[in-house]
Amino acid sequence: MTSQNQTFERLCRTGTSLSVHSTYEIGGEARHLALPHTIEEVSTMLEGATSKGLDPFLFGMGSNTLFPDRPSDDMLFFSLKEHIEFKLLPGRLFVSAGTPMTLLALFGLYTGIPSFDFMFLLPGTLGAGVYMNAKYFSHQISDVLETAYVIDKEHPERGLISVPLSGCEYGYKKSVFMRKPWIVVGADLKLPVDPQLTPEQTDELFAKIKSKNLSTSVLPNYFRHYTNELNAAARAGYELRQELLDVITDRGGKKHFDYPSCGSVFKNNYTIGEPMGKLVDRIGLRGTVRGGAMISDHHGNIIQNRGGATAEDVTDLVKLVQEKVEAEFGFVPEPELVIV
Ligand SMILES: Cc1cc2nc3c(=O)[nH]c(=O)nc-3n(C[C@H](O)[C@H](O)[C@H](O)COP(=O)(O)OP(=O)(O)OC[C@H]3O[C@@H](n4cnc5c(N)ncnc54)[C@H](O)[C@@H]3O)c2cc1C
Q: Which catalytic residues are annotated (predicted)?
């Protein structure tokens, strides 16, 4: 066995339920699952997948992904969520793709930089945020990104490729990354001011932020943990900006974290003039149940797992909404949710 093969076998877990890697808490056992810690390990996984004829599927925190009830044995599921790294550079902050976006809001809190407040309690990893231009009200990843770093899934041997903001082709929940066989491994984010820190203070800051990470896809635990961190920071003397408090009120009020879900299921169609949640309300679908899945009774664009839901229950509701919206409003809503 070559050393590359050995590394592949070492990194690959067998028989892991994908449900523990998804905020839907849905997904069957994966024959091949890996959580690489470095970019070299990512390349090894990709090369191993090619030589074994496996189809790689990359994910982050699984907060926008519906995994299958019976995953194919020919798929390799892998996530970068254990690769968390920060580097402070003049005018920018390098962040690895596996870093939870909410940790960037904590970075902003500890350094007095407000640019990342919109990422507070935004579930998911930076890599996926860069991939789909994650958005909260009027703020989105494209506002803060300077350069994304990717590797080509089909040619990992070519190494790191830099993609400047102008090359990301960002739009509303759209990007070049959705059309290319690229894995985002990290990004430089713009800093409006450079934090005045010595190298030792910088190391301490990043160690502190990493210590706040809670690797979970269980939404109530996620919400409780990061709101507790904010309260702890306030007690330690950090000033909580109103934007951060507003996020808690808004997301808590919309009951985003009460049940397993992937947040909004469909992209808004801005030509219609009303968000998807309102359209679903207008056709009276709130509260509709299929098996263990339900269209939230608080927000028409969220489908929740109310206990024991399968991927099929969720996709049945997705199809129902698409059919009814097409009949009533003349367009088929495009899922934001990634259905594997
Ligand atoms: C309660 C709740 C609220 C939410 N609110 C919002 C919101 O306000 N705004 C918003 O935009 N989203 C929201 N979401 C959706 C989710 O937070 C975002 O889509 C987030 O970007 C997904 O991150 P993830 O790491 O979980 O991605 P995953 O679900 O793991 O993956 C999503 C997609 O990204 C791709 N991907 C993942 N990592 C990479 C990478 N490194 N390189 C290339 N492609 C990659 C995957 O292949 C997949 O296609 C919400 C979700 C929940 C559960």
A: 264, 336
